[in-house]
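As a next step, the fold was encoded as tokens, giving this record:
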Amino acid sequence: MEKWYEKKFSASAAAEYKFQRERDKKKYSSKRAKQLGSLDGEEYDLETALSANTDDGILKLITGAFIASVFVGFYFGVLAPLLQPASFTSESGTCYVQDPRTGIFVEAS
């Protein structure tokens, strides 16, 4: 095939073609196949390689952190303001509390 390529194209194009073919042959060697968990002569299978080299622990850790952050955000953003309405004390010493139904500050009793 390389002879045909040399006849049809220039010498530099043929040299570039040969270089790329040699480089592509080296990309997936038997050593690399062994690292990825496939057998000699077997085609590269991304699904098999990922299942052989993926740690489930890190995925569980990230998922747990995300779920915890959602619950904390829900509590402090929604539940805490409803359970303990905002309040403040004026300069005269009168305490005002926010009514949860209307959102208006009323004098605390």
Remarks:
- The chain has a mean pLDDT of 76.
